[in-house]
UniProtKB/TrEMBL annotation:
Domain Aminotransferase class V: 27-393
Catalysed reactions listed for this entry: (sulfur carrier)-H + L-cysteine = (sulfur carrier)-SH + L-alanine
Entry's Gene Ontology molecular function annotations: cysteine desulfurase activity; selenocysteine lyase activity
Family: Belongs to the class-V pyridoxal-phosphate-dependent aminotransferase family. Csd subfamily.
Enzyme class, first EC level, given as a word: transferase
InterPro entries: Aminotrans_V_dom (IPR000192), Aminotrans_V_PyrdxlP_BS (IPR020578), Cys_dSase_SufS (IPR010970), PyrdxlP-dep_Trfase (IPR015424), PyrdxlP-dep_Trfase_major (IPR015421), PyrdxlP-dep_Trfase_small (IPR015422)
Name the record gives this protein: Cysteine desulfurase
Reported cofactor(s): pyridoxal 5'-phosphate
Job description of the protein: Catalyzes the removal of elemental sulfur and selenium atoms from L-cysteine, L-cystine, L-selenocysteine, and L-selenocystine to produce L-alanine.
Residue stretches spanning the membrane: none
Length: 405
């Protein structure tokens, strides 16, 4: 990353940091997974080629060094969301983090007749784990509707929540619509009836500054690979008092205090939730990704992406067969449908013009049903995109229109 690329007042121009993005390719599928900048790739390479060893158990120097680096990564990642290191549990990704909370906290704290409150726009990974635990404990699920401009309706939430709701689980930023939740307000509404609130921050952590204390939530989860880090590593944050009271999720090595065939005692959190040899180099890669976004600044990233989305929305709205979904101020993500053209066809034709978008239900089938569509086309933006990518998208869409006449 050069100083010129980051000079104040200039638009972000960072594509040169991303070796997997060749010139002329508009990669607009960051909401699925982000491309990796060179410093992240270098950190992963270094992790394996000159510094590799296991963590926590080795009595030799290399392992002690790797343990320090691994725990420093935890502290660095914790700092990004304003949390202390001991409140960060490393998991495979947001999906595993939500399953952990469902199978540990919810299975312990929910009883028959209790209720879980979700929203209409949730990703399947913030629906299915709750259905599984609800079935296991005899709880029920309620769903908050959306406003006319496709946000989670917090007035409806306030009207429908009751003391039986023990847990609320909501997306901070929708992976389909880009709408941003007022998490502080949602937390207040949840806490007014004594419910805990989990926030799925998968699409938010790469796009908006997150401070878990200011948000007031109880659990916050995200995946490293959407934050320019590697796959296979993600984060569950929970307040220490909550983590301390939660039973383990998986058993195995590393998560114990003492084991005998009569009785096993567990290590304190977060170790208790990290059974098995962890994704050591994944943590180092994610920490390098955190350094990368921190150097740019999340406020700047947010401004950059919302500007691109606004341009894209304006360009798409000009085409009268297109319906653009989501609110005008959506964060980095825009979904749209085109009359008479399946999103998969849009995606395939755009690919011929070297524009990569996502087409499908985006793991949000209940949302598709609520929007009255089978699927959408989705463009999502990142630090490596620029106005040229919006222009390529718009030109590609014009071509789709010509082909389908
Ligand atoms: N929630 C949201 C909002 C997402 O966008 C995604 C990934 N598409 C997930 C959860 C699941 O993340 P992962 O597949 O990395 O576990």
């Amino acid at each position: 990353m050069t100083d010129t690329a980051l000079a104040a007042g200039r638009p972000l121009d960072l594509v040169a940091d991303f070796p997997a993005i060749p010139a002329g390719w508009a990669y607009l599928d960051t909401a699925a997974t982000a491309q990796k900048p060179k410093p992240v790739i270098d950190a992963i390479t270094r992790g394996y080629d000159t510094t590799y060893a296991t963590v926590h158990r080795g009595v030799y120097q290399r392992s002690a060094d790797m343990t320090l680096a691994y725990e420093a990564a935890r502290a660095n990642i914790a700092d990004l969301i304003g949390a202390p290191a001991n409140e960060i549990v490393f998991v495979r990704g947001a999906t595993e983090a939500i399953n952990l909370v469902a199978q540990s906290w919810a299975a312990q704290n929910l009883k028959p007749g209790d209720r879980i409150l979700l929203s209409m726009l949730e990703h399947h990974s913030n629906i299915v784990p709750w259905q599984m635990v609800a079935e296991r404990v005899g709880a029920a699920i309620d769903v908050i509707p959306l406003t006319a401009d496709h946000r989670i309706d917090l007035d409806a939430m306030a009207a429908m929540i009751r003391p039986e709701h023990k847990l609320v689980a909501l997306a901070h930023v929708s992976n389909v619509l880009g709408s941003i939740l007022d998490v502080a307000k949602a937390s207040e509404i949840a806490h007014a009836v004594g419910a805990k609130i989990l926030i799925d921050g998968c699409q938010a952590v790469p796009r908006v500054a997150v401070d878990v204390a200011a948000l007031g939530c109880d659990f916050y989860v995200f995946s490293g690979h959407k934050l320019y880090g590697p796959t296979g590593i993600g984060v569950l944050w929970a307040r220490a008092d909550l983590l301390d009271a939660m039973p383990p999720y998986q058993g195995g090595g590393s998560m114990i205090d003492r084991v005998s065939f009569e009785r096993t005692t567990y290590a304190p959190a977060p170790t208790r939730f990290e059974a098995g040899t962890p994704h050591i180099v994944g943590a180092l890669g994610l920490s390098a990704a955190v350094d990368y976004v921190r150097a740019i600044g999340l406020d700047r990233i947010h401004a950059h992406e919302t500007a691109l989305v606004r341009e894209a929305r304006a360009a798409l709205s000009h085409i009268n067969s297109i319906r653009v979904l989501g609110p005008d101020d959506s964060a980095g993500i825009v979904s749209f449908v085109m009359e008479g053209v399946h999103p998969h066809d849009i995606g395939t034709i755009l690919d011929e013009s070297r524009v990569a978008i996502r087409a499908g239900h985006h793991c949000a089938q209940p949302l598709m049903a609520a929007l009255g569509v089978e699927a959408t086309a989705r463009a999502s933006f990142a630090v490596y995109n620029g106005p040229g990518d919006v222009a390529a998208l718009a030109a590609g869409i014009e071509r789709v229109k010509r082909i389908f006449g």
